[in-house]
Design goal:
The chain is an all-alpha fold and 424 residues long. The protein is 79% helix and 2% strand. The chain has a two-stranded antiparallel sheet. 16% of the residues are buried. Keywords: Membrane, Transmembrane, Transmembrane helix.
C-alpha cells in the first residue's frame, strides 16, 4: 500500500492542469465578447444609421495616412444634405405628376434617400409635399408596379401613334399616301397599324387620304377601324361628294358670266375656299378659267388655285391635263388685258373724234383674228373687233356715248348691239 502512494499524487496533479486551461479559455471568451460586441454594435449602427455613418466618415477622414485618404472620398454630412436639398427643391418646382413619377423611381432605387428627400420637402413646403405624398399613396394602393408599368407603356404607345397621325395629316396628300402604304406593307398587321393612325386623325384628314387609296386597301383599313370612326369618315366623304356636285353645278352657271364680273366672286377666298375654287375653275374649263384668273392681280392667289387643281388631277387621274392649258389661257388673256389697259391710257389723252376715227378704221379694215389652240382642242380667238369693244367698255359712259355718236349709223348700231351682248 505504501508503494502506491506516490502514484496517487501524480494523478492529482494531472487532474488540476485541465482546470487551469479551462479558466484561461473562459477568460479569453469573455475578453472576445467584450471586444466583439462593441465592434458589432458600432458596425451595425454605422451600416443602418446614415447620420452616424457620415459623422464617422468625417472623423476618420482626419486620420493621417491611407485611412484618412480613403475616407476623404466619402461625402460629408453637409455635402450629403446639399444633394438632398437639390433634389427636394427640384421635386417641389415641377408638376405634381412628374414629381410623383420621379419620387417613385427614387424610392425603388434608394429608399433611404427617398426618406431624406421627403423629410426635406416637408420642411420646405409641407402643404405641397402632403399632396404629393397622398398621390403616391393612392397610386400605391390602386395599382401595383406591373400594372403601372403596363399602363405607362400603353400610354406611350398611344402618344406615339397620335404624334405619327399628326405628322402624316400635316403632309401633302400624295406624301401622306406614301407613308400609309409603307405602314400597310411593313408587316402582317400593317393595315391594323394604319387603322390606329386614322383613329387619331381628324375625319377630314383621314377622308382625304383614305379615298385616294385603292378600294381594296381602303376597305382593309376600314375593317380595323372602330364603328364610330368608320361611320364618321364615310359620312364626311358623302358630304364632300355632295359638295363637289354642288360646285360643279355652280361652275356651269358661272360659265356664262362676264369674266370681269365673275372675278369679284371667285377671285379670292371670301366666298369659297381654295379647295372649292379648284373644283369650280376645273369645271369652268381651261379657257374660261384662264380668262377669269387673268383678271386677278393677286399672283399668290392664282398660284394657290392652280396648284390645288394640279394636285387634285394628279391624285385622281395620275396625270395633269388641265393646268397646262389653264396657264396658257391665263397668259394669253393677261397679255390681251394688258394691251387693252395700255391703249385705254393712250386713247384717254386723245380727242373723241380721233378715237372715233381709229375705231372706225379698225372695224372696217380688221386684220384676221389671232387664234391660239389649247392642248384640249379649245380655240382662243383674239380679233381687232374684240380689242375695240374692250377699249370702249373701259371708257366712261359719257365718252363712250360721244364716240358712238361720231360713227355712222350702221357701225354705231352694230357696236352698240355687241356691247350689250353678254360674254360667253
Amino acid at each position: 500500500m505504501a508503494e502506491n502512494q506516490p502514484v496517487q499524487k501524480a494523478d492529482d496533479t494531472n487532474e488540476k492542469k485541465p482546470k487551469k486551461s479551462g479558466n484561461k479559455l473562459g477568460c479569453l471568451i469573455v475578453l472576445l465578447i467584450l471586444f466583439v460586441t462593441p465592434v458589432l454594435a458600432v458596425g451595425t449602427l454605422y451600416y443602418f444609421s446614415k447620420d452616424f455613418k457620415l459623422s464617422v466618415n468625417g472623423v476618420l477622414s482626419q486620420v493621417p495616412g491611407p485611412v484618412g485618404s480613403y475616407f476623404e472620398n466619402f461625402p460629408t454630412q453637409s455635402e450629403e444634405m446639399d444633394k438632398i436639398r437639390i433634389i427636394s427643391d427640384y421635386m417641389l418646382s415641377i408638376t405634381e405628376d412628374r414629381a410623383v413619377d420621379k419620387l417613385l423611381v427614387l424610392k425603388g432605387e434608394d429608399s433611404r434617400a427617398y426618406d431624406e428627400v421627403i423629410k426635406d420637402m416637408i420642411r420646405i413646403n409641407p402643404n405641397r409635399t402632403k399632396y404629393i405624398l397622398e398621390t403616391i399613396r393612392s397610386q400605391s394602393l390602386s395599382k401595383d408596379a406591373v400594372v403601372t408599368t403596363v399602363q405607362k407603356i400603353e400610354d406611350e404607345k398611344i402618344a406615339d401613334i397620335k404624334t405619327q397621325a399628326d405628322y402624316i395629316a400635316s403632309l401633302p396628300v400624295s406624301s401622306a399616301i406614301t407613308e400609309i402604304q409603307k405602314i400597310t406593307s411593313a408587316s402582317i398587321n400593317g393595315h391594323k397599324d394604319a387603322a390606329q393612325i386614322f383613329e387619331n386623325m381628324s375625319d377630314e384628314a383621314a377622308e382625304k387620304i383614305l379615298y385616294q387609296l385603292e378600294e381594296i386597301e381602303r376597305n382593309k383599313i376600314f375593317s380595323f377601324l372602330s364603328e364610330d370612326k368608320n361611320f364618321s369618315i364615310k359620312q364626311k366623304h358623302n358630304e364632300i361628294v355632295r359638295k363637289e356636285r354642288e360646285l360643279t353645278q355652280i361652275a356651269g352657271v358661272y360659265k356664262s358670266e362676264n369674266p370681269a364680273t365673275l372675278i369679284n366672286t371667285v377671285g379670292d377666298t371670301k366666298a369659297y375656299t381654295v379647295d372649292e375654287l379648284a373644283i369650280i375653275y376645273k369645271h369652268l374649263g381651261p379657257m374660261k378659267a384662264g380668262e377669269v384668273l387673268a383678271k386677278s392681280r393677286n399672283d399668290t392667289f392664282v398660284f394657290q388655285v392652280i396648284e390645288k387643281m394640279k394636285e387634285n388631277e394628279l391624285l385622281k387621274e395620275n396625270v395633269d391635263n388641265i393646268t397646262p392649258d389653264v396657264l396658257k389661257s391665263l397668259k394669253i388673256y393677261r397679255e390681251f388685258d394688258d394691251n387693252v389697259s395700255e391703249l385705254v391710257k393712250v386713247y384717254s389723252k386723245m380727242g373723241t373724234d380721233k378715237v372715233a376715227d381709229i375705231i372706225k378704221n379698225m372695224m372696217l379694215n380688221a386684220s384676221p383674228s389671232k387664234v391660239y389652240e389649247l392642248d384640249n382642242g379649245d380655240m382662243i380667238s383674239i380679233s381687232d373687233e374684240r380689242l375695240m369693244l374692250e377699249i370702249l367698255k373701259s371708257f366712261p359712259e359719257a365718252k363712250k356715248a360721244e364716240i358712238l355718236s361720231m360713227l355712222d349709223k350702221t357701225l354705231s348700231s352694230e357696236l352698240t348691239r355687241k356691247l350689250a351682248l353678254p360674254e360667253n
